[in-house]
## 1
Amino acid sequence: NECGSKSIAEQIVISSTADRGVFEKLLVFPNPNEGQFTVWILASGAGDAEVNLRLVNALGQVLMETKGELVQGELILPVDRSDLPSGMYWLEISLNDRKAVKKVVVE
């Protein structure tokens, strides 16, 4: 557009001792986006494991629930929710008893 646009990839690095090795890195990009984004998780201490992902709106309504499989501690999951209206959403990622939440902005 005329105003220009930028994509920002936000990285969360979990640094507490209790979480180290579960979510070493968690990246959602691009963010903001138009409803299409990629989730990248690095959790080398988890090996091969199932990850649960939920996308929730500001009212707490669950808009998407899916599962992904860590392979040797890594998951790259493309998400296409281009049907979503512009707004702020939260992506909840859980692995065993650990949980992380990422803000996702749809323009």
## 2
Amino acid sequence: DVPTELGLQRTTVEYQGRQLFVEPALKADYAFVTAHSADGYGNLRHHGTARSFSTLMAMAADYVIAEVYDLRESALTPDEIHTPGIFVHSLVTVERSSSYEYQPILR
């Protein structure tokens, strides 16, 4: 059962005999994501922890800008695509630079 004081502030629905809260999805105007490689169609391939939320943010945002290290002339294979190009609006190619990235912070 939904407590009365919580149910007054939120939309509730009944599903299979249970009363549930309905929360609106978070929406972003812009999403800046990093991808290891991309093709000309905007399909992205991520490495490491970038795979966790980059695709979700791309789906939640109105406009997606992807920072890409390797822009390929040939299309990525379906197995390589982590974020479909339908969600990506702009690609920005950058060079990897270790001079300022990932510097240890001395304490």
